[in-house]
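CHAIN AND CONFORMATION:

***
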Amino acid sequence: MADNNLHPVLRVVWAIAGGLLVAVGVALLVLPGPGLLLVFAGMVLLARAVPALHRHLEPVRFRAMQAAEESVSSKWRIAGSTLVGLGLIGAGVAWGLVPRLPFSGWSTGGSLIVSGVVLFVLLGWSHRRLQRLRAARQ
């Protein structure tokens, strides 16, 4: 929901948070999973900061929900997403524990672990949503 009367500082906060979510969502688009959901969430926040973007929300929402359904439409896609999530968490632990790796440390490892957890949360949400849709169609 666009708000033309936002305080300028709050507008900047919404824009930064939305921009970060869009960036993370775009990065997740190359992974098998619901990256468009994060793009949509970022667009919602950006639309609060920039009211002109509000008209672009519905097409992004439609495509994000469609992609969320597709990401859990088969056992192979769920298995691929699960392997990527486990790989991200495993890489995060490795980057946190092995000092010889480039950019090693818990800041890098933690961000990888958080990415894996976000992937699992979105995957679970998408799966529950698809199950509800299928139940409603029957």
